[in-house]
Fold these 4 entries.
Entry 1:
Amino acid sequence: MNRSFLAVAGAVGGLLGVLGLNSAATKNAASGGSIAVPTSPRPTASASTGSPGAVTGTSIGSGGASSGGTSGGGSSALSGSAGTEVVTGTRESFSYGQMSIQVTLTSGKVTALRVVGMTELDAFSTQIADTAIPTLEREVLAAQSTKVHGVSGATYTTEAYLQSVQSVLDKTHAG
Amino acid sequence: MIEDAARGPSLTRSSPKLGASWSPRPRPGVVDVAVAVVAVGLGATVGISLTAETRTQFDGNGGIAIFAGNVTGLVGTYLALVMVLLVSRIPWVERVLGQDGLLRWHRRLAAWPILLIAAHAFLLTIGYAQAARSGILHEVGTLVSGFAYMAIATVAFVIMMLIGAVSVRAVRSRMKRESWWALHLFMYLALALAFAHEVVLGPSFVGHPLTRFVWSVAWAATAGVVIVCRFGIPIVRSVRHRLVVAEVRPEASGVVSIHLKGRHLDRLSVSGGQFFEWRFLRRGMWWQAHPFSVSATARSNAGSLRLTVKNVGDFTAALAAVPVGTRVAIEGPYGAFTAHAQRRQRVLLVAGGIGVTAVRGVLEDLPAGCEPVVVLRASDAGSLALGDEVAALVERHHGTVHELVGSREAVPVEAIGALVADLKERDAYVAGPEGFVEAVVEFLSRAGVPVKSIHSEIYAL
């Protein structure tokens, strides 16, 4: 009976302790402490409308196209044969969230790729970022197109990534 | 809830003086602390699983199932850790609760981790299928092949579910005890295989280095406890004492005593009523360890340790023919059925069948003034073992012995009531087969003996 009490009190204490620490940490973060959040705007995951498997690359809603100031100015000014432009691709849904890819083009060549605005449903996508995305980046840079092998086992991520890159290539090369 | 072996003020006693060769006095406070630590851990585990995800993720497609899947997974795994600790034979804990007490909790808890982990896999598959808008079966493929360490975690899951399935009473009762036991050891492998996916993918750990560190340390420490207590200590003791069969002697029909000689037996701390898991190092026998009570410690048996065994199956039959000189490895001593548990001056000791071995051991260690009433129960007079020794010990303590011989119907446990006038004022020690012990314990508590004054040891066949 004594120990039942100990057990209940201990469990409640442990739970409240973690909840307390957690809310304290959240408050800290809110009040200016900069906890390294890797991505810029984080739209809600519920905004995802596209079917994750869809390769047709429907640009998602209004939020997806709003690629922010960095890309907008650059793309219009420097769409020549020389110079660098930075263009953000469409926001694509994949199984576990959404992402869009920012493409840097130098003299028409893809020189850098960056994931921006990734929202994730949970920690699985952090895993993906760690493994699949560097591979995709390397492959696209090497091929200078989205006709690449992709990452097996990360099909949705590959599709979303390449689709977003393709949207940039469509805009800058063909268009 | 958890029965105490010893709690409250210790009785003043003139003898025995607890020297090096008796098992150390149990300290119930250790168990209180352990219960509190485990409970705080459970609370904290629930806490980190509840706070791992943000509100937005919760609102997403499949968010609720994914959330529930993560909580059940983490809590189920934490309970699995507790399950492992319950059978890790930590000496300070075992001494208080006894091996049978710990096993009882292990058994009571067993269904929870299995069910929670089953729910974890089920809910996460549903949740991610909803999030990805794909079919369940397709999602199983994605989850298993698409993420780091998920393949081995799936193997772990299959092992756990198989063990869960064979542990359902209807299936388990059709298996040999040894086969089931050997099979269920694969749970250790499953838990080890599942570990990587927890810390690499678990939302409570990704991006939370502190929780990941604490969780890893908890599991490493648990593994360490298992290795030290289940392997280290027994190996060291076996090597140090180097027990060898010195003599095999028949005691009664189907009952033999095995005397073991060894080194430094005066330094092997064991109390009467405790038992070892004995492993006879012979071809065909070495791989199984069996629990038998010490029926006489080296203190009373001319420097050799004695176990007394009733022939109940293949293994015990083979033991009767074990050659002199066979080396014996030991795990133990275990058990809280000792004189340490005594709370009140006078005692009643009840032995059913081979339970007499433990009762005889306790009797040897009881202090003067315990005025023991000993009840020996057997189905026929020929199978009463160690009767003379018990009678001699009882005489030394100025007590009385009663032999109840006959079928259960002819001599019900209620017959004990007529033999002991001051039943309510005594501590009761009850040892024997499960059904017998349960019947006697029930009778005693109905007769007014407080639960804390009833000490029992069950002999499984």
Note: DSSP finds five helices and four strands in chain A.
Entry 2:
Amino acid sequence: MAHTPAIPLQARNMWRYLPRGGWLLVAPLMVLVLGLFLGPLTNIMVISVTDPKPGLGNYAALFQSDALGGILWTTLRVCVLTTAISVTLGYCIAHAMIHALARERNWMLSLLLVSFWISVLVRTFSWLMLLGRNGLVNNGLEAIGLITQPIEFMRNELGVLIGMVHYMVPYAVLPLLASMQTIDARVLAASRNLGASPAQTFWRVYLPLTRPGLVAAALLVFILSLGFYVTPAILGGGKVLMVAEYISVQILVTLRWGTAAMLAVLMLGGVLGLLFVMSRFMKLSTVFGGTKP
Amino acid sequence: MTQPSAQTHQGSAPYEGLRLNGLTKRFGRFTAVDGVDLHIRRGEFLTLLGPSGSGKTTLLMMIAGFQDISAGDIALDGHSITTVPAEKRNFGMVFQGYALFPHMSVRDNIAYPLSVRKRPHAEITARVDEMLELVQLTKFDTRLPGQLSGGQQQRVALARALCFAPPVLLLDEPLGALDKKLRIEVQAQLKAIHQRVGTTFIYVTHDQEEALSMSDRVVIMQNGRIEQLGTPQELYQRPATQFAASFLGKSNFLHCSDGLYALRPEKIDICPATQTAGAPLGPHRTTAVVHSVTYFGSILSYTVALPDGTTLQVDVDAWRGGPTLDRGAQVTLDWPDEAAVKLAPDTP
């Protein structure tokens, strides 16, 4: 067989990496996604290092300004707490749903889905009515004599947490439900048969088998919480300043776009970093794709 | 063989085995298991055989403690265990589909019953090594169940269920998921392991070959009741009812003046009518016409029609049985008296 000249071979291999006919069909979509999604995103990254003057001045402010550090710390704390509480509650709800009768389960699922349809604004204002100084909860507790002073539910982290957890629990339930549905009841029966107490069966078999669902739920809730704006703004009453609200203030009020863009880039980087760390420990496809490990 | 958790049984009175008294399970109006009385001897291999819906799996689940009991009593060594929860019964079980823990290695799966009992680490390691060797999976101890073949998973499930030396091992159609060739191989392994460990095996299957080839005794179940109980030979040679005769092996049924008789196809002698012409007619000697011939390799199966129109099946050793008879051939049939077994009328 004749030797094939090196250069033409390389040229031929290059064709492999060029788009074939099929790619042309999705090209318009690609252009749209690149133009409308990646474009603005790049713009934000550029602004974060060029406004007000070129350089890393915006990022340096992170270490110089106590206010910025405080906001990031508050955001992180609220998000971690929200995630922990929502996933724990979601786990209980999903577990109850899985073990309920089919009819009851359908009712519970409908109620869960209904809560997705109610606007976050409506839900936050409802909490305002319930938790205010003269709200239903405080008035009720006072009326039955449990408290003499109204409890401060609002304008603090407690209120923000209540509002955020309430909004996030359904998001935590769905991935957990999907993960619990895949568990073979015979595996749990086998655990009992082999002498494990109900607690041992839970900790050693049930919980490890639902771990992909737990990770998915925690990631989902944490990422959604990072960008939460309405609930902290209303229930926090300006006292609990989180990143999303701070960004909005920088853009709309103080017009420091550079700082706003820097914080946005930081959050994006944080989320991507989190996904990367997760991918080191487990296949993300098992978390998001629902495929078996 | 060391038996780490068997002390409780050695301390008590002579082992009586497992005794079921009037065990009944009702689901609403439907009675799945109907007053079963059964004594399972220590160390025996007992098979519950029946078609689906006969109550055999429900009965096994009641013994395991997964199904609560509507009426009756289960006793081990003379002590009632009816109210003992499944996790305290110390019965091993091999589930249909094996039910291995998918997130644990083979070693951790087998060690599970010992580690939940908080046994010392060294004892667990030694015992698991012993079990791995018993089921010939020593090289696979770090694999996950998903990385094993069906037959290997089945052996892990067996090792896990035997690891804590249970007095009774329950097996729920453990070979159902295997292909036929592998199944025969595993049957032999299972039988060998039973002889080695000496544990009582209670085996549920709908496969009559499995029941015949492995069991010390077989219980044929139908409609939640015991149809017949006996050794494989007893059940095959002396079926008690029409159901028992037709479910275990093939059988012809003869309606005679004094009742119904079962006649196994291989117990009928068949020869061309020309060869027996002139010979005196015996009590069972009869003429027939060959209706069809089916070749199964080791046997030839004839369907023959009697003058009155009834058809019988006759099986002949294909190697020793002489030349193959053609369709339409006139034949003479005969069988000894003891070949036909009188049946009791079926329970309604």
Note: Chain B has a mean pLDDT of 88.
Entry 3:
Amino acid sequence: MKKKKCIAMLLAGGQGSRLGSLTSSIAKPAVSFGGKYRIIDFSLSNCVNSGIDTVGILVQYKPLILNKYVGTGEAWDLAVSDGGVHILPPYAGETGGEWYEGTADAIYHNIDFIDLYNPDNVLVLSGDHIYKTDYNKMLKEHESNNADLTVSVIEVPIEEASRFGIMTADEEGNIVKFTEKPKNPDSNLASMGIYIFSWASLRKALLEDHVDPQSEHDFGKNIIPKMLAEKKKLIVYRFEGYWRDVGTVDSYYDSQMDLMDNMDSINVFTSDEKVFSNSNIYPPQYIGPDANIGKSLISNGCTVYGAVNHSILGSGVVIGEGSVVEDSIILPNAIIGRDCRIKKAIVNEGMTVEDRTEIGDPDGKIVVYGTSKLSI
Amino acid sequence: MKTIGLISANYKGEGFGELTENRTLASLPYGGRYRLIDFALSNMVNSGITTVGIISPYNSGSLIDHIGIGNPWSLGRKKGGLFLMPGSLYGVQTAESRFLIRDMLKNIKFFERDDADYVIISSSSDVYNIDFMPLIKHHSESGRDLTMVYKKMPRGEDLSGKGYCLDIDESGKVTGMKTESSGWSCYFMDCCIVNREFMLEFLDWFEALEYMDMFDVVSENLDKIDIGAFEFRGCFGKISSTADLLRVNKGMTDYGIRNEVFCNPERPIFTKTQDEAPVLYTPDSDVRNSTISAGCRIEGKVEDSTIFRSVDIGKGSIVRNSVIMMHCDIGEDVVLDNVICDKYVTINDGVKLYGSGSEPIIIGKGMKI
């Protein structure tokens, strides 16, 4: 097999419990986003658009829809013979099996997988980030600096820095200190949870970390501090552009609204650096004779008879006659009956909302309606 | 009862002006995101047929580009799958040749090497959603050589002149094939099921008439062939002119047609996907009774129209009773009424074009107006 310069390992196993009922039956990376996408589309598309053709997806929490969605990877041009996409769940060995106990532990359990491809570098990604980037720029910095680890960082307002893992770097970009959620931050460079490791260094660190009884086997808490303590070459890569972690309902809502409100965020309309997705083939949308549509994003397969304003409709959504949907996100295949009032809400996938239902919070908080259902 | 499918895309496709100058009728864009052949192909695979041959004409570039190895229809398979077979130049005898005997003779291996009991032969340019299983059952129980699928057309929607109407006796046997009819007509939908072994015999008998259309030959030999008929009761969209194209596109906005043909969860219409973003509507947009595809940006007014993917419609513009194909750029304050724009058309600000339902204005691919 041809030696790979860089392969990607995508962490997609976490529960995403802060998203509440949105992830009650599906893993966070498989949650619908922006009408026709799922969250994982952004990272997978970044890989393909950066020429990375081998991606391991580490799954653990309720992966059924995610597995089905990723499929052979064909939708992202990742159905290639020498590489491609691999779903990597925990598995048993001679002495039994274990769950993935942390981000680093998940990679540790797949050392054999990475060795199959024997890459120079391993790109570690989160499956719940919304951004567009060319990883080659970061890889170039990593290689030209001969680094053991390059951490992608983004500048955040200093007053918010205490919410992030903060990297302190010298003038050359060498990381001199890493503090998780510092009380008195001395830097505003937040780690994005995107790492490029040289495989030899990571492999060694994972093997040592595995036998450390004190370790929680987490990249941020254990691996980076350990490599820092061992005086390895750790550098920052300054990311510029739009990047969101959609870990909470608020950030999940806001970043989707950015698709139509904030054209400087992610342009999903451009044909270069296209965001690919594996959506079912729906017919085009139908807008009825009395429909009234204000600023909105509406996906294929929708049927709209009512009014939709400043909202996002996922694939196959139906909005009944007389219903008014405002400032809301209706996830795929939800059916909204007649004369409903929906304001600032997220309606879960496949939900049926009965006629004359009113959804909305009097204080203007975002309401998540219903529970996500398994459907393909 | 193993069945294979054969679709003829070797149609002359006249009456579409520039729209079929450089493409086959089978690959004519339709319905916002489809090509006409999607219906024939989806009907086959939704009925469990996994071996499908397509007779392609000489100008098959756009057709091959669309179909590829048949992945969207799950026909990229090891056993069976998709067979693209070259057709000949059009027939000389009949201007409207569709199922040329010489095209089948040329590709006779398709019939010979399979062990299927039946072959479903279908047109490539009609819009309907059918389950072939009841047809296969009906035909197999009848014991006939061939069974034709027809649609009963009321007076006024007479499609004769565009093909054959069938005379059917009480036993269900086809006794006549005419090119005109009066009152209710049983319009032959260019779709039939035939015993594979019989098909080989038929091609052998009529080898000398290889320049003719298979059904022209059948119509003159009804005494020699035992032919049954099967009624299709669903919606049937026949597209044989630009006016038809406009009308059948508008048909998609009909609730019944949309649900039966396009939104049937048991039998979805598959097509090549392009992964466009959802449609972006701006506060100025005003859209009524229209079909809109992914990737569009709508700032103007759209009524009773079909808009394909990645079309921009500028502020103050009105698009009415029209079909706008993919990647068109409609400027500001434009009026398009009964217009069909092919792909990549640019309409500059302020341009106003008025066609009629019977004679829509056609704007050729890539034109700037």
Note: The longest helix of chain A spans residues 249-261.
Entry 4:
Amino acid sequence: MKLDRTTIAIGVITVGLLAASPLLPKWAMSLLNVSLCYGTVVLGMMLLMRTGLVSFGHGLYYCLGAYAAGTVDQMLKLPDMALMVAAGAAATGIVAAILGLLLARYRDIFFAMLSLAFSMILYGLLVKSSALGSTDGFNISAKTLFGVALVDDARRYAGFGITVVLTTLSAFALNLYLRSHRGRLAEAIRDNELRVEYMGASVRATIHLHYVISAVLAGIGGALMAINIGHIDPEMTYWPQSGEFVFIAILSGTGNVFAPLGGALVFETIRSFAYEYSPNTWQMVLGITMLVVMIFLPGGLWSLLQRRKPA
Amino acid sequence: MSTILHAKGLNKNFGAVTAANDINVAVEQDSVVGLIGSNGAGKTTFINMVTGYLKPTTGSIHFEGRDITPLKPREITQLGICRSFQIPQLYNSMTVAENLMVGIGIVASSGARWAKSNRLDVTPERAVDAMLEQFGLGDYRDRQSGLLPEGTRKLLDIAMAMVVRPRILLLDEPTSGVSADEKFVLMDRVMAAVREGKVTVLFVEHDMEVVERYTHRILAFYEGRIIADGDPAKVLDDVEVRKYVIGEAH
């Protein structure tokens, strides 16, 4: 396999973050954790956007991943981080494979609104479900990683470690996929579905596959967030959460797998500082940021680093 | 020569409008067939039915003896029937090379039998370079396809149909929108590629000079019917063709 610059950078950043973790203050580790979890979700959004689709309901899979992780911990009494993430990925993959059969038929605003509708259905189910804590959700506590017991700081570092490894692994796998023949179909479908079909490929099957991949990434992001935060609730599938993912995806751009990760970090940093220094108007700060990006960088922050194609 | 494509009793109605009326055509392998007729005569409807975009109201289409009438466009492509479009259908945000790479990738990544039989014996990058050279698109390799001149877009559109190594190629007005200077250059390149690949060609064309120069046989359409079928000289001299297609007064 030929290594590209992105793959090498992913390797360097993974090792760098893991090596630096003992030196990171708690606030920085927390900021990175949240950013990486969001970034993993937005990696999937990026794949959909490359295919010409925007999901307004990816909170569905983010929340489902978290609840699957929580169920493994609290109901099955298997508080292992790896198992929890695997459960999150599996649950979202199965649900997306089923819902994708319907969603792959729709485009544009219909796809966006249908995905939002499914996320709100989950919200409705969760707030009515007392066994799952209703609107309060429930706490979870991952106590082991691959069977090794974790206490105090070790648990925090393990949470950060598995987040770094799985996020960068997700970015690596997605980068590999996007460079493959199959992955190139994403942009081809966005540009011209008719031609894709007349070249012998199935547009619907490809969109279905991309939907499932994006859902699994959101599920992993949700499970990792649940492990790191230690609490889950139905707000994870409420529409503002899905809106945040769309916000980050537009802020980031779709040019490279680093875009969602960088975009999520920028988003979280702006939000944290805006909330700290301007607690009553932090939403306005984010709104102005989005306005500036859309006017001056319609291709997202990543477009600052991209070379233009010759005309 | 054996029959590669056989349309039997094709009819296509759009409400009260009859776009195809009892079309019966057998196309010989390796032949080049021109489809002529005024606008609305049924030429593109015929191509759309062969490629699966439209389903005939009645009748059937057979490719190498197999009934392909109910198949989807994708499945028909996989059997070896490919097409170009009157308005070039490109991936406009991609470069010329990337456009071709998508097609090569579809063949390379598909597990279907057609893809296995079409496996490349060179790397995809070399296959793209060979296509670019064959169609004279080398100078445009890294140019964004959405910004190309019309003649080049037409050529790329046809190259994309050829990239999956078809058995039959259907061209919908390959020289429309192309300047008089460029049209023979374009057709020469296309016909050279077609001969090299041993591809059977059906093409819709309004330019009688082009039709006469490149075809072995002409089908003349009028109001959904085939009014003349035969060698170019005979068809172009037909009284009905001169009246309804070419538009010459008596």
Note: Chain A has one domain: 5-238.
